[in-house]
User: What shape does this take?
Amino acid sequence: MSPPPPTAAGLPATPPAPAPHLLSDPPSDPGRDPGSEPHAVRLTGLGKSFARPGSAETPVLEGIDLTVPAGGFTCLIGASGCGKSTLLHLIAGLAEPSTGTVEVAGGHAALMFQEAALFPWLSAGRNIELALRLRGLRGRAERRAEAERLLTLVRLDGAHSRPVHELSGGMRQRVALARALAQQSSVLLMDEPFAALDAITRDVLHEELVRLWEQTGCAVVFVTHNVREAVRLGREVVLLSSRPGRIAGRWTVPVPQPRRIEDAEVAGLAAKITERLREEISRHGRA
Ligand SMILES: Nc1ncnc2c1ncn2[C@@H]1O[C@H](COP(=O)(O)OP(=O)(O)O)[C@@H](O)[C@H]1O
Ligand SMILES: [Mg+2]
Assistant: This one.
């Protein structure tokens, strides 16, 4: 069972039950795609090419067929430059596909980057209030109360008036997460959001992210080049090849949350996926 969809307040009335049938799925094949289940994101025949000055269009992504179920958690991995960010931008509607289609439940997805990208002249709370205003929340008092609720949700109680430059990197990413949740999208796209943080902060934020994912019921598409992180977090890990980026492997992670990055099962599956990633990189290196 997938976590229930968010309520008007962005949270389900009751915490979602775990999804044992999904957690115990056998490793999936590259071609598998559950077309009938409710989806958060559905990509069909998706391709993207970029024109370079003086040369023909270069295909960056080609033939991507991928479904992220409602309430799913899919981690995308692949070598640097293989098109992971481009794929997220296509899902977010920041770029137009060259071929194929993108369907996003609810019509829009929230996007979070490696850099928190907060407005430095606004306080933590005001950054969130801005997103609430863009969402159409009219009343000032209502925006303030909702920003405080979201800050509490990411465990930054009382930080509403803190200037952004006073916050640590981990705290800034918490504010960025609260701002993404303020959009009430049923899909949260994350582009290497913890890559610049130290290992301990990252470990804490992994726990927080899984807790928020379970509480809100939103689907997450999480890009990382860290295979362990992908297996620590995702229900599914998708490997992209390079030039052009195609789906080169998919694995369901058969380990229930809460997981830890040092768990033997996490390490074992990560080693297997890393082996495939190495093959991809060396194949590409010889090409
Ligand atoms: N707007 C753009 N114009 C031209 N080329 C681009 C553009 N955006 C990305 N690319 C190219 O697409 C490829 C994939 O980039 P990207 O999606 O950022 O990779 P990743 O996130 O996997 O590191 C790179 O070769 C990059 O140079
Ligand atoms: Mg990238």
